[in-house]
């Protein structure tokens, strides 16, 4: 296993999703792999099933991946609501980020907070 810098332990990663989105399962598998590959990763999954929950959580679509409460891939242009989310990957639009994109986003955030 690889270590996360001590100042960033543990990393709390949350998957926000809603059941009608088929892509959340792929994102869930990515997070399981992440937890296997890195020390001190604490995973949780949270079902978002009402528009009110989506608004309260600033839910930018399913699946959303949060690191210590902050969406790793959100932009200012992203809307909030119960919708499937599209990620731009090296292979084109997809329902979840690639594993490499996920790891890079986590490293960028942890180094910036470092």
Question: What this model shows, in words?
Answer:
The protein has 114 residues and is α+β, with helices and mostly antiparallel strands. It has a single domain (10-113), classed as Glutaredoxin. Helices cover 32% and strands 23% of the residues. It has helices spanning 24-37, 51-57, 99-113, and strands at residues 11-17, 41-47, 64-67, 70-71, 87-89, 92-94. The chain has a four-stranded mixed β-sheet with strand order 2-1-3-4, with helices on one face. A two-stranded antiparallel sheet has the order 5-6. The longest helix is centred in the C-terminal third of the chain and has 15 residues, at 99-113. The two termini are 20 Å apart.
**Spans of at least 5 consecutive residues with low confidence:** none
- The overall pLDDT, averaged over residues, is 90
Shape: globular
Distance between the first and last residues' Cα: 20 Å
CATH topology heading: Glutaredoxin
Give the C-level CATH assignment.
Answer: Alpha Beta
Biggest β-sheet: strands ordered side by side in the sheet: 2-1-3-4
Tell me the CATH superfamily.
Answer: Glutaredoxin
What is the tally of helical segments? Answer: 3
Percent of residues in helices comes to: 25-40%
- CATH architecture identity: 3-Layer(aba) Sandwich
Q: Rg to the nearest angstrom?
A: 14 Å
Number of strands: 6
Overall number of domains: 1
């Amino acid at each position: 296993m690889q270590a996360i810098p001590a100042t960033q332990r543990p990393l709390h990663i949350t998957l926000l999703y809603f059941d009608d989105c088929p892509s959340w399962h792929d994102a869930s598998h990515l997070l399981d792999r992440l937890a296997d590959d890195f020390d001190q990763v604490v995973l949780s999954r949270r079902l978002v099933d009402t528009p009110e929950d989506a608004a309260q959580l600033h839910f930018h679509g399913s699946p959303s991946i949060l690191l210590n409460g902050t969406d790793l891939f959100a932009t200012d242009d992203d809307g909030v609501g119960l919708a499937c989310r599209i990620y731009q990957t090296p292979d084109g639009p997809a329902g979840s980020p690639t594993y490499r994109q996920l790891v890079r986003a986590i490293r960028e955030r942890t180094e910036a907070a470092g």
